[in-house]
Amino acid sequence: MAEIKKLDRAELKANAQSFIEEYRKLKEIGFINQTGDFFPSVHYPPITMYQPITQEELFQSYRIPDDGLFDIYAHIPFCAGRCLFCHYPVQLGPGQDSEKDRYLDALEKEMDIYMGVLGLDQIKARSILVGGGTPTYLTPAQLRRFLDYFVKRIDLSKVTQFNYDVDPNTLLGPEGEERLRIMRDYGVDRLTIGVQALNDRTLGYMNRHHSVREALDSIEASKKFGYKLNIEFIFGYPGQTIDSWIDDIEMAMTLDVDEIQMYRLKVEAYGDYQGPVKNIIEKNTLRVLGDEETLMMKRIAIDMLKENGFTENIRRVFSRTKKDFSHYAWNQCCMLYDELGFGLTAFSSLRDRFGLNTQSFEEYYALIEAGKLPLNRGLVRSEEQQERWGIILPLKNSYVQKKLYRERTGESVDSVFTEKMARLKEHGLVVEDGQRISPTPLGAFFADEIVQQFHSPDYIPFAREEYKEGPLNPYLP
Ligand SMILES: C[S@@+](CC[C@H](N)C(=O)[O-])C[C@H]1O[C@@H](n2cnc3c(N)ncnc32)[C@H](O)[C@@H]1O
Ligand code: SF4
User: Fold this and answer.
1) Chain mean pLDDT for the chain
2) Which domains does the chain show, CATH number per domain?
C-alpha cells in the first residue's frame, strides 16, 4: 500500500467552491452552455454525427502509412450484466457461449476482409487496445482462441503496448488467474480495470457486478503477473457525494497502480443505444448531482492527485510517472496516426478519414457473411474538416504540435482559426510557443469546451441559444 498525503477536506471543498466562480464566469461569456451539460469530444466530427458511407467510398485512394504501422483496436461486446451508466450495445448474462463463438468467428473473418481491402497479409501494429464490453468475459478457451488468431494476423514486433480493458470480476478465482496468464502469454502488458468506485453503495447504485473487495482482489491478482495497471472511475453518478468521492480517490492513491483515470458521467447516449441512467435521473430515486457539484468533484480529485505527485500525461488520466500513459490514445489522438478498429461499434481513425462499424449485431453478422466490412457510417474529411480535426484531437488530449499539424493538414496552425486562438489566449485558456499550442491548467480542465470552439457550427453539440452571446460563444467565427 502506498503512503499518501491526505489533504484537509474543508480546504479542498473551499478551493473547489471558489473554482466554481470561474466556471460561472465562463458560462457568462458563452464558453460553456447554460444547462451545464457536457459533451465529451472524442473525435471530429463527433462519432454520432457521421453519414452512411460504403467501403469503396471510404477507402478510395487511401494510402497505407509510409512506415506501415497501425494502432489496433478490437471490440468484444459481451458482459455479465448491464451497468446502469453504460451506453454500449452489449449482449448480457451467462449462457451465451455459442453466441460468443459466433461473434469470434465473425471477428476473425472481419480481420481477413480488412486485410484484403488494405492489400496486406499481416498488419504491423504500433499499439493495441482490446476493449468492450468486457473482452475478458469469454471463457479462458475462447480468450485463447481469440488471441491466437489475432496475433497471427497482427505483427507484434513493433508493438510498444498491448492493453486489455477489463472488468474486475473476470480476473478472480482460478478462471480469472487463467485469463491473466493467457493474456500475458500473448504479450498483453497493461490492463485498464473498470473499478468505477471504491464504495459498495455507489457500486450498487451503478449495478456493477462486483464489490470493492473484488475490485481490490482483481488489482492484486493482476499485479502478480506484472501488468501495468490503469484503474477507471466515474464521478457525478446519482447517489455519490463529494465525501464518498474523496474517500474513493484517497483509497485509489494507496493502491500502487500506475494510472488513475476518471470520467464525468455522461447521461445522454453517444452512440445509438441509450443506457438506463437517464431514466434513473428522470425518476429521481437517487440524489442527482448538478453540474457545479460534479465539477467540484473533478476539481477536488485533480487537486488531490497533483498534490500526491500524479501528472496528467493525457487528458483525464493521472499517472505516477511521465512514462505511463495509453499508447493507443496518445498515438491516435496526439500523434494523429492511423488506427484500425475491428468488431461491433469499432471505428477506424485514419489520417484523413473515419469509418464506424455498425452497432447492430444482426447487421454486423450479415455484412461479414456477405464478405463486406461491417461499416455503416463514416467520412473522408474535407480540407476544412481536416484543419479542425488536427487541432481538436491533440488539444483535447495534450497539445497541438505545430510541425505535426503541418504534416497532417498541409497548413500552418498559425494561419488558421487565428481569431479563435487569440480569444482563447486572452481568456487564459491556451498558451503558445514556437513548437506547441497547449491548454493552460484552466483550459485543460475544460478541454472538451476548448476544442468545441473549433467545431464547425454544424457539429457544435448544443444549440446556439444554449450558450450566452459572449466573446467565447463557440458559434462565433
Ligand atoms: C468502454 S467502457 C468499458 C469498461 C469495462 N467493460 C468495465 O465495465 O469495466 C470504459 C469506461 O468508460 C467509462 N464509462 C462508461 N460509460 C460511461 C458513462 N455513461 N459516463 C462516463 N463514463 C462512462 C467507465 O469508467 C468504463 O470503465
Ligand atoms: S460498463 Fe462495462 S461491464 Fe458494464 S455494461 Fe458497459 S461495457 Fe459492460
Assistant:
1) 95
2) 49-333 (3.30.750.200), 383-460 (1.10.10.920)
Q: How far from chain centre, in Å, is Cα 44?
A: 14
pLDDT tens figures, 439-455: 999 999 999 999 999 99
* Residue-wise pLDDT tens digits, 380-416: 999 999 999 999 999 999 999 999 999 999 999 999 9
Alpha-carbon torsion, ordered 277, 281, 286, 292, to 10 deg: 110
Mutation probe of ligand 2 site: the residue of 75, 78, 92, 167 with most atoms within 8 A of C-beta: 167
For residue 45, is the peptide bond before it cis, meaning its omega torsion is within 30 degrees of 0?
yes
Residue from 271, 249, 247 nearest 260 by CA = 249
131 lines ligand 2 (CB under 6 A): no
Whole-structure pTM value: 0.96
Q: Is the peptide bond before 133 cis (omega within 30 degrees of 0)?
A: yes
89 lines ligand 2 (CB under 6 A): no
> Strand, coil or helix: what is 28?
helix
Q: Does ligand 1 lie within 6 Å of residue 132's CB atom?
A: yes
- 172 contacts: CB under 8 Å, gap ≥ 6: 214, 217, 218, 221
CA of 354 to the centre of ligand 1 (A): 22
Q: From the CA of 194, give the closest atom in ligand 1.
A: 9
